[in-house]
Amino acid sequence: MINYDLTKIRMIAFDVDGVLSSGTIMLHPEGEPMRTVNIKDGYAIQLAVRLGLRIAIITGGKTNSVYKRYTGLGVEDVYMGCSVKINTYDGLLKKYNIKDDEVMYMGDDIPDYEIMRRCGCPVCPADACPDIKDISIYISDRNGGHGCGRDVIEQVLRAQGKWLNGREAFGW
Questions:
Q1: Which segments of the protein form a coiled coil according to its record (predicted)?
Q2: I want to staple 10 with a disulfide (CB 3.0 to 4.6 A). Which of 26, 102, 109, 114 is the partner?
Q3: pLDDT, tens digit, for every residue of 139-151?
Q4: Secondary element (H or E) of residue 129
Q5: What is the spatial distance between Cα 33 and Cα 18, in angstroms, rounded to a whole number?
């Protein structure tokens, strides 16, 4: 269980590679990186969006398939090609008038470090690098790309009384 007051979380932001996809990338013959995604993560993301929780994607990757996947789930804030992620994070806080302690961020590697030091609820997958695990208040028992996104979203929605509460929970 996440040791944080999850009732105050207004936004969950995710890295993609190593978090919402596994740490391994297959290369298409044309050179584009190909990623796998977890269906249960997808269900939880779209449900959270429909229930009013702000979901954001902040990734260094630039592939169109990632953009299509998350906008297709209703995510409005998909930021690609972020070489310094803290700048995007600061813009999101300002855009939605959100405070650091209202944000959960799930990352797995050094590019996520600055955000995770600032946000109220830094979390990571089981296979995150040691530096990220050291600053996380919760380490999922699931690896990146294998349901860690669902794990944390479900905990937030349960804490907020929104999980399995109402007709919205039973559809896509």
A1: none
A2: 102
A3: 999 999 999 999 9
A4: none
A5: 13
